[in-house]
Amino acid sequence: MNNRFEIIIVGGGVVGTALACALARTGLSIALLEPQPPQPPSDPMDLRVSALSVASQHLLANLGAWANISAQRCHPYSEMRVWDGAGEIHFDSAELGYAQLGWIAENRAVHYALWQCASAQANIRLLSPAQLVGLTTASDGSLRVDLDDGQRLRGQLVVGADGSRSKVRQCAGITTVERDYHQHALVTTVRTEQPHADTAWQRFLPSGPLAFLPLADGQCSIVWSHHSEQTQVLAELDDLTLGQQLTEASAERLGEVRVTGTRATFPLRMQHAQRYVQPGIVLVGDAAHTVHPLAGQGVNLGLLDVAALAEVLGQAVSRHRPLAALPTLRRYERWRRGENQLMLHAMDTIQRLFDTQLPPLAWLRTRGLSVTDHLTPIKQVLVRQAMGLNGTLPELARAPNPHASV
Ligand SMILES: Cc1cc2nc3c(=O)[nH]c(=O)nc-3n(C[C@H](O)[C@H](O)[C@H](O)COP(=O)(O)OP(=O)(O)OC[C@H]3O[C@@H](n4cnc5c(N)ncnc54)[C@H](O)[C@@H]3O)c2cc1C
Fold it and tell me: What angle do CA 26, 272, 277 make, to 5 degrees?
């Protein structure tokens, strides 16, 4: 078996698999390593869902994965309501000139659709199950990747798409800036007395945000961020009591809440790699940045990394420039690190602002929500940011050209 590749992508989650698909058209030889290949969607629906931005939908459509995703567990939402004790802001796609604000999609459906696209490409080798255990630079400058089954691969460029605890990042000695929120998110599925009205609902409580994300079958996915010990207590409640807690915490905006799904909890932290690149190595997605889920931006930022990196590497190929050289990779880093930093910083600031009960700040926050609600131009900017449409958009994240041949 040929163990030499031009690009080795470590981590075939949503971001790594999307990158393999995006690079397929360059004709480069690509290996994608993943310890846990995705399973096709099945009943019951998986607990994990993501709010996908319009830019992410464009990318998934450009990669040929969207038709499969939208045919499965994926639901557009056209409104968003965010409130704390007293202030509220309401975003309505029709009022702001858009067909929808985004989609709530089952992670497994997105992952599986991308995996199918990758497996149809002749220049992508899916190595799964396979896990990177070591990464070193060979004397000729290529990268040596050691796998858990004893195999050794060689690549010109290794991409770390292996999530927040990235082994690639660790082997490369790239450090991170971190903030532990001492919070966990409780995730479950519920049925509400009132219809969700295709609206993403989020209440900022003193203990953390509580989101109700609208699903295609009329249920809602819950993401409830809370102090870690309290999340554990909530996770162990029986369905009836947890439902009562959710009804109360949501101020009965959707009436009575009934828990229908299992539960899972996730630790929350902000983390940002000090560098995204070094010769022969590049980081994308959660390996480069992890963000509080309060605005549902993590995978959306990762997919923008994918689109930008694919564009930079595609240009290097067509201009016969070395793929793995720093000047090539730095173009990607300059493009994405600043934009991600802004989003991480914004999420961190919002998290701190809503975490406080100091009277002047709490007043400012409530006033801020209510005042901003009347400022349509500011709401336009906020919505475009959440839709992933601000900043310099890579080609793959723009609306697909209906006349282009895929
Ligand atoms: C509660 C919660 C809600 C969220 N909601 C949203 C949302 O609504 N919208 C949104 O955009 N984001 C959301 N996020 C964030 C989003 O889930 C992540 O940003 C996203 O999953 C990151 O994708 P990734 O592919 O970079 O990393 P991961 O999903 O972590 O994938 C990494 C992959 O690498 C593999 N891997 C790990 N180590 C190795 C190794 N040594 N060798 C080979 N492979 C390896 C793993 O098996 C995995 O498949 C949420 C997060 C949480 C916790």
Answer: 40
